[in-house]
Design a protein that fits this description.
Length: about 325
């Protein structure tokens, strides 16, 4: 166990290492209005080495957010519009015959960038989804006989529209589980939307974003995130929250037993711990507190809990279940 002196020194080091967070927030706020939660979750995924599944209606600045963040970090950005006729080679690349040298050469696909926006991922068939998800998991792709490492940092933001489900290919639960975060995006407030109108009329676009952070700084920050101190009591708190989705009755949550068809996977425990550390880092703190866990719990777990028919009939959501759990589990 670390001593209080170690933690104090660590806290000071994390405070120094996380200084760029304020620069990123200031830069992205030049363009993005009223979607701080989305920007925070993108940064969280980036620092915790996880990917983000974003669910929201069209026009809520999903593309603009990741493009702005990529510009502020001086990183490469590619947008892939998923359609029913897309092929895996359209994403990862393929072998092209070069008659000049009489052999096949590799043409790399758009996956070779730091930031990937997979727009409307549920519009493409399973083979294409799997090609992207394999690249996310393995951080490499295979073209022909050779494997190619993807650039670091590497973040995938996948979007799906919650209202247009006809003619789509919903992501299987096992594949959705590979996303660290599933973030639900709502409409901006009236005041925020007024500001959005004014910014668009004035033509304040992505080109005005300055690169305030280098990709190397993000890679270094990821190592700092791993060093953030997490007490054993916080670890047990995380396990209690996750296990309460699997065995609710043991945690005096009998009323949600018939609402859950399956609980959160072990990835939920791992990602909850990593995200809590990243959240503490973003708060410029060298140790995790219960509020860090509570803050990220819905985004980490909402796509990892299966609802029963009874829950759907009663219009109970995963968020309702998670809220009930975190309000019941004793806080250390």
């Amino acid at each position: 166990m670390q001593t209080s002196i170690d933690i104090e020194a660590l806290n000071q080091q994390i405070y120094i290492d996380s200084a760029f967070i304020e620069l990123l927030n200031a830069e992205t706020s030049k363009v993005i209005v009223g979607q701080k939660q989305m920007i925070d979750r993108l940064m969280l995924g980036l620092l915790a080495q996880g990917h983000v599944l974003l669910e929201g209606l069209p026009g809520l600045a999903k593309t603009l957010a990741i493009k702005t963040l990529a510009s502020a970090i001086d990183a490469n950005f590619n947008r892939i519009q998923f359609t029913p006729d897309l092929l895996p080679s359209d994403i990862i690349g393929t072998m092209i015959y070069n008659p000049g040298i009489n052999e096949f050469t590799v043409r790399k696909g758009p996956i070779f960038a730091n930031f990937i926006l997979a727009d409307e991922i549920n519009r493409a068939p399973a083979k294409v989804q799997s090609a992207l998800l394999e690249a996310m998991q393995e951080k490499q792709v295979t073209i022909g006989k050779d494997s190619y490492k993807l650039d670091e940092p590497f973040l995938v933001l996948a979007t799906q529209n919650p209202i247009e489900q006809e003619g789509t290919y919903p992501l299987p639960e096992a594949q959705v589980d590979r996303f660290m975060l599933k973030v639900n995006i709502g409409y901006p407030s009236r005041e925020d939307e007024k500001m959005i109108i004014r910014k668009n009329i004035l033509g304040e676009t992505i080109q005005k974003i300055n690169a305030v952070v280098k990709p190397e700084s993000i890679i270094k920050a990821r190592e700092s995130v791993k060093k953030v101190y997490m007490d054993e009591k916080i670890e047990n708190y995380i396990l209690d929250i996750v296990f309460a989705t699997r065995e609710p009755a043991k945690y005096k949550l009998q009323e949600i037993v018939p609402l859950i068809s399956y609980g959160a996977s072990p990835r939920a425990s791992i990602n909850l711990a990593m995200a809590a550390k990243a959240h503490a880092f973003m708060q410029r703190r060298g140790y995790v507190i219960p509020d860090d866990v509570r803050n990220v719990s819905k985004d980490i777990m909402r796509h990892r809990i299966g609802l029963s028919y009874e829950a759907e009939a009663e219009n109970v959501t995963q968020d309702d279940i998670i809220t009930k759990i975190i309000n019941t589990i004793p806080v250390p």
